[in-house]
Amino acid sequence: MPSFVLRIWVLLFALLSFSVSARSLPEFTDLVEDNAPAVVNISTTKKTGGMAGLPIDREQLERQLEQLGPWGELFRHYFDAPQGGGRGAPIPRDQHHSLGSGFIISDDGYIITNNHVIEGADEVVVKLNDRSEYIAEVIGSDADTDIALLKVEADKSLPTVELGDSQSVNVGEWVLAIGSPFGFDASVTAGIVSAKARALPNENYVPFLQTDVAINPGNSGGPLFNLDGEVVGVNSQIYSRTGGYMGLSFAVPIDVAMDVVEQIKESGSVSRGWLGVAIQEVTLELAESFGLDKPRGALVASVMPDSPAEKAGIETGDIILSVDDKDVRRSSALPPIVGRHTAGDSVDVEVLRQGKKRTIAVELGELASGKSGQRSDRSHSEPTSDNRLGMALGAVDERKRRALKLPDGGVEVKQLVAGAAANAGLRVGDVITHINNQAINSAQQANRLVAEFEGGRVVPFLVARPYGREFLAVRIPK
C-alpha cells in the first residue's frame, strides 16, 4: 500500500475516533433550557438604621446655606447627595447585596437557598429568569445545614425543578450547576462528583457532595443537577485560598435539604436526634489496640451525663459501628446519621466493646443548653517515678479537676521523656482517666497495669484535655 494511502487511512481513523469521543461527552443544552427558568437570583437589603457621617442640625444648615446666596444651592446639592458627598448630612442608607441563588421547588412559590445567603436580612428580593421580582418571606432556616426556605406570592404558576435522589449519585458522574456567580444571572458550569459524604470542619450534620464544578460567590444556594435534570444538591461552599474557585466545591445533598424543608414547613424549626457522646476517629493503631479488624466506626471518648447514650448503657471506649443498620465508616459519619432522626426516635446502635459486638437500643433526645453536672473533687496518690513508657504520673490537683470537669480518678502526666508515651502523643499536663478501658484511680495502679502489658502490644489510653477527651494508642515497648 502506498505511503500516502496509508496516511489517508490514519487520518480518517483519527477523525472517526474524535467524532465518537465527541459524541460521548454529555449534552447540557436541553437540561439548561428546561431548568434555568426555575433558578432564581436572591438579593437582600439590610437596614443599617444609621446615618452617613455625623448628624447635624438640618435647620441650622438651611439658615447657613441661605446666607451664602447662589452658592448655597450648590452646597445644598452636596449635602443631599446620596454618594460621593453629604458626609455631614444625616442620610440613612440601606445596604443592598446580591448574595446568592436559589431554586423553586413548588409552583406556589417555595424556594430553597442557603441560610448564609439570607441571614440577617431585613428584606429578601427574588428575581426570576424572566426578570420578574418578588419580595420573599423567610419561612425558616437552619444554620447547621445552611438551608433556608423562602416563599413568594405570585399571580401565576411558577416554574419548578425536579428533585432527585442524592443517595444514588455516583462518584465520577457528571453534574451541572446553575446560579448567579458574582451576580451574573443564569450562569452554567459543569463537572463531576469527586467525593461523597465529605465531612468538613465545624459542619457536623452534612455529608457533603464534593464536586469540581466551578462554584463562586453568588452560586450559593443554587441547584446541582444530574444528567437527568434532577436536583441532587444545594451548592453551599467552596474551598479557596483566594475567594474564588479552586477545583473543590461542596453541595448539601438534596435529601438532607428536603428533610430540613419538611420540618420547617411542619413546625417552623428543625429537630435533630442527640446521642450525647464525644467521639474521635479510629486510627490504624487504635483499631489494633481495640481488636478491630480495620479502622472504622466512631470511638466514644466520653459519654455526657444524663444523655440518651448514658441512659442506654453506651460506655467510654465503645466503638460505634452502625446505627439502625447504617454503617459508620468514619467518625464523621455518625452525627449526620443520628441527626437525620428526631428526638424520641428509638435506634439500634451496634458497638464493639472488649472485642465483642453488641446492639444497644437508644431513645434519642434533643440537646439542651446548660448540660453540666457538679462533680466531686479528690486528690489521690503522690507523684511517682517514671515507668516503662517514659513518663512520671501524679495526682490531679483540684483546680485542674474542676477545669476539666473530671469525676474522681485519673492521673496527670507530670514529666515526659522520649519514649512510647511521647511517641503516642501524650503531653505533660494530660490526665489519663482510662488505660485499656480500665478506670485509673492512682499513679501506682497505672504503673502496675503498664508493667503487666506484653511488649509490642498496642493499648488505648483515654486522656482528658481542655477541649475534651481523646484516645491515644500507645505501643508498649519490648
Question: Main traits of this protein?
Answer:
single chain, 478 residues, alpha+beta, Thrombin, subunit H, Pdz3 Domain, six-stranded antiparallel barrel, six-stranded antiparallel β-barrel, 35% strand
- The CATH superfamily name of the domain at 162-267 is Trypsin-like serine proteases
Largest sheet: 6 strands, antiparallel, barrel
CATH class identity of the domain at 162-267: Mainly Beta
Mean pLDDT comes to: 82
| Helical fraction | 10-25%
Unreliable residue stretches: 18-22, 50-56, 81-92, 368-385
Strand order of the largest sheet: 1-2-3-6-5-4
Task: Write a structural description.
This protein is α+β, with helices and mostly antiparallel strands and 478 residues long. Among the domains are: 53-90; 162-267, Beta Barrel (Thrombin, subunit H); 277-363, PDZ domain (Pdz3 Domain, Roll); 391-475, Pdz3 Domain, CATH 2.30.42. It is 22% helix and 35% strand. The chain is built from twelve helices and 25 strands. A six-stranded antiparallel β-barrel has the order 1-2-3-6-5-4. The protein has a six-stranded antiparallel barrel with strand order 8-9-10-13-12-11. A hairpin with a 5-residue loop joins strand 4 and strand 5. Helix 3 packs antiparallel against helix 4 (70-80). The N and C termini lie far apart (75 Å).
